[in-house]
Amino acid sequence: MLLSGTSMEQGGGSVTPILSVKNLNTSFRVGDGWRTVVRNMSFDIAPRETVAIVGESGSGKSVTSLSIMRLLPQKTSRIEGQVLLGGRDLLALPEDEMRKVRGNDISMIFQEPMTSLNPIFPIGKQIAEALTVHTNISRSDARAEVIRLLEKVRIPNAKSRFDEYPHQFSGGMRQRVMIAMALASRPKLLIADEPTTALDVTIQGQILDLIKQLQEEEGMSVLFITHDMGVVAEVADRTIVMFRGDVVETGETDDIFNRGQHPYTRALLSAVPRLGSMGERKLPQRFPLIDVKTGEQTLLEDVTDTVAKGKTPILDVKDLTTRFDIHSGLFGRKTGAVHAVEKVSFNLFQGETLSLVGESGCGKSTTGRSVTRLINPTSGEVTLDGYEVMKLDQPTLRQMRRSIQMVFQDPFASLNPRMSVGSAVMEPYVEHGLGSKAQAREKAASLMEKVGLSADMMKRFPHEFSGGQRQRVAIARALMLDPKVIVADEAVSALDVSIKAQVCNLLLDLQQNLNLAFLFISHDMAVVERVSHRVAVMYLGEIVEIGPRAAVFENPQHPYTKKLMSAVPVPDPARRNIKRNMSTDEIKSPIRSVDYVPPVREYREVSAGHLVQVA
Fold first, then answer.
1. Which of 14, 432, 453, 587 is deepest in the core (most CB within 10 A)?
2. pLDDT score of 318 more than 90
């Protein structure tokens, strides 16, 4: 990689880079001084090239992209160095000139499309705005071009969806709209900032294929920002590794993956779970941990078998059905229902992890909430630790919830920002009247230590913790009532790769020490393979395949299970030019008419405990 200069050697000739960043330093005002968060960043991007910047949250990768676009607040930030685009230094341009560059020469796709799209305007109008601001184009021509762009990013029925609003699109389709908007003015450079992090694995695969295809067709360069090394392997020609504001390693992606030199690079790669790495192993396995400063790997003992086989399951679910009525018309009559969960059956033993996997909208989170009666199911039987959950009155339901607790995806949203984490962890113990405040404080301090935090952190507030630390606090709070079952609803989905490894190891340690049962809800197939004893695959509210983890992963039978497996990004640069040719269909709607009668499902047993729904 060139760290400076204005040309690059390619095929024996000299190629002028699309973008050349030289000695970029970005600082933020802290009190009376300045704190530098990106230091001496230099790199070039050639025409049609994809460069990835990787690193964990706080490494400075997103700040680098915002510095290039000059989207940081002027009063509290300072950007120094050079950012050359076509020979022009973007950092020296007047604001009105820079406004012409944004969306025209450089476009950006942000991580969360719902916050990037205006909820009160149709998506067609928002994409058309990107055209009318930068080009002299009539309204009818702009509409025709927007429809062409929507078709290009493979949005079905593009013409009829021009006037629809963001909330009428799924997460994957909203991200396609953002890509269409970014491509409207045919930019020379596309900056993609974590564009697939929050998406399901199949939608992620579609978006990656789409970006690769559009890059070939449009001839643009791409700056791809992510912490997912599997994604980097599939899209990037060259890779820049960042750690706490510094570039620690740069090079061809193949060299970074196969011959990475820096301890932090090796730590990132070692923490990536690889689908298929478990083989016939029956028990979960801890993630390897590497010291980012020394590169030394921590050897972890294998998990021992704690599953109480042959005994009564701690959780037994039979024909669980949850539907949400749809009312419309002048008198609010029932016109249909969302069949979120349809006749789901499974059991869970003490010391066991059963993972529910599938795309958004398949009903896995609704299943978890129905089992705890956070949502009232329509019908079925749920037996938990001797309680018949569906028949409980409010006082008994409250008592039952001491046996089952939830850890949610976003710990910041599930923790009260005005309450210290110590108070948040103590609250369940106090509310259930299990002891005095002093006893609650003592138990909370013990649990904080158990989840890898110190007791003196209890005085702090949620905003003073990192994402991984907040998730540890949420786990400590869930343990305060000594539950026998924990429902972990996408508990590690939003975490960086090394933090994800630490939290997964923590859950496995807690399971082994406390004999906990986990209902682990996730769309991350590689993590599921590592932590599960058994796996249930859900599609449109139904379990289509369930069985021991090794059986399901080594011998998937249902077409949907195979589709999920094939969509997982593999951290192997040799696969960079492989296209999955995945279907771009959205997951089918679970909305049914009032008179709909679900078909009776049958299952065949492939091997011991491995059941597959018969089509």
1. 453
2. yes
Percent residues over pLDDT 90 in the chain: 52
**Residues 357, 568: Cα–Cα separation, whole Å:** 13
pTM for the model: 0.82
Residue 545 above 80 pLDDT? yes
Question: What letter would DSSP give residue 195?
Answer: T
Return the CATH number at 394: 3.40.50.300
The pLDDT tens digits of the residues spanning 380-390 come to 999 999 999 99
- Supply the range of the domain harboring residue 468: 408-482
Q: How many domains does the chain have?
A: 3
CA atoms within 13 A on the CB side of 525: 30
* Cβ neighbours of residue 248 closer than 8 Å, sequence gap 6 or more: 241, 242, 262, 264, 265
Same domain for 348 and 207? no
pLDDT(185) > 50: yes
Place of tokens 């909430």: 369
- Answer yes or no: do 416 and 548 share one domain: no
Contacts 24+ apart (CB under 8 A), 242-246: 242/53, 242/54, 242/55, 242/59, 242/60, 242/61, 242/64, 243/55, 243/56, 243/59, 243/292, 244/58, 244/59, 244/60, 245/36, 245/37, 245/38, 245/39, 245/59, 245/60, 246/39, 246/40, 246/60
Tell me the C-alpha to C-alpha distance, in Å, between residue 267 and each of 243, 471, 508: 11, 21, 20
> Is 447 domain-assigned?
yes
* Residues 443 and 514 both lie in one domain: no
Instruction: At 130, list the tokens.
Output: 């990107």
Question: Looking at the structure, do residues 433 and 322 belong to the same domain, yes or no?
Answer: no
- Measured between alpha carbons, how far is 308 from 367 in angstroms, rounded to an integer? 23
pLDDT in tens, 505-529: 999 999 999 999 999 998 888 889 9
> Which range is least confidently modeled, 58-67, 107-116, 215-224, 352-361?
107-116
Give the per-residue pLDDT at 101: 92
CA dihedral sign of residues 177, 178, 184, 189: negative
pLDDT higher than threshold 90 for residue 446: yes
Here the tokens at position 423 are 């108070």
Crossing angle of helices 123-134 and 139-152, rounded to 10°: 120
pLDDT in tens, 144-166: 999 988 888 878 788 888 999 98
